[in-house]
Amino acid sequence: MIAAPQGGRVTSTARTAAGSSAVLAVLTEPSLRDELDRMAAAVGVRIVHAGGAPAVSRKNWAAAAAVLLDEASARRCGQAALPRRARVFVVTAAEPAAATWSAAIAAGAERVLRLPGQEHELIRGLGDAVEAVRDDGLRGDVVAVVGGCGGAGASLFATALAQASAGALLVDLDPWGGGLDLLVGCETTPGLRWPDLALQGGRLTWPAVRDALPRHRGVSVLSGTRRAYELEPGPVDAVIDAGRRGGVTVVCDLPRRPADAAQAALDAADLVVVVSPCDVRACAATAAMAAPLTAINPNVGLVVRGPAPGGLRAAEVAEVTGLPLLAAMKAQPQLADQLERGGLRPRRRSALTAAARRVLAVLPRAGSPQIGAAA
């Protein structure tokens, strides 16, 4: 399972306002406060504890992502005639009595939950509340990278894209690739890999995903391993969606072999990048892939990687494949040696980094022209 981030308690009266992404808790029972803090860590949300209903301003009441009350505070909030709002929960350490239900109705609560016993319902409610607020904010872009032929350097370019985008999520979707963490250089960094994740799909929070994964040179990496495993589309979609809702760029390294998991990434992608070497055979293989990819996702662009042993130009590769040229890059002779000695280390002025930045510039969030005009 994805490991939970560590949450912290913020105690407040009138001094600290509950931000729009925070949960406001008005609890008089210490045991409930402790239980809530433990559960809040599971969804990576910030809890603002208020001392009691008189200390809750109408502004904080309305601004919080969700509000948690116990029976006593629910009764006082009802008496204070605070405005009705969504995502108000009443929690209790015992079986709810008639008085509890009465107080919950007076405060406009949508659920009464007993803790422990219904913690999963509360965790889901808190997660949905916070994510609903975050969904109104900036959403990240999704880039899928695939090789036009075997050995095209798609994994290398996907890694360069992630390293050129601050705080990116790099997702390895090739179960036969040996693990992208080797290319990144984080194979010994603690964190979860695909076989460690017990997911069927659903909704994940970006903080929980980020804190569970290895992080290397500013990139969160969800890698494969050196042992056989299978990928299902549900978990892939959940991880990509978490990164996108977290506002980060999600870069997916796709296998050339068709698979349902790769299909999920192609469907979600804002941009599909096909990487092709600059030779005749690679050009022919990339041309064969172009039409099927475009049928799945019309936002497909081409990156051409040198050298060009026969003098073929990048513009000619783009013409033959029918794909708009996003970037062309010359060969880097020392790159293979670098990859064998600690993984890719980005250099600001390298051809690889420059090509990655050109591709990132055409993403929707960058406000640049559509890729058809980006060559």
Describe the structure.
With 375 residues, this protein is an alpha/beta fold. It has two domains: 9-134, 3-Layer(aba) Sandwich (Rossmann fold); 142-373, 3-Layer(aba) Sandwich (Rossmann fold), CATH 3.40.50. It contains 14 helices and 14 strands. The strands form two sheets. Strands 9-10-8-11-7-12-13-14 form an eight-stranded mixed beta sheet, sandwiched between helices. Helix 11 links the parallel strand 12 and strand 13. The protein is elongated, with a radius of gyration of 25 Å.
Mean pLDDT: 82
**Residues in helix, %:** 25-40%
Report the strand count: 14
β-strand percent reads 15-25%
Residue ranges: pLDDT <50 for 5 or more in a row? 1-19, 366-370
The CATH H-level homologous superfamily of the largest domain: P-loop containing nucleotide triphosphate hydrolases
CATH class of the largest domain: Alpha Beta
- How many individual domains? 2
Largest sheet: 8 strands, mixed
Order of helices and strands: EEHEHEHEHEHEHEHHEEHEHEHEHEHH
Lateral arrangement of strands in the main beta sheet: 9-10-8-11-7-12-13-14
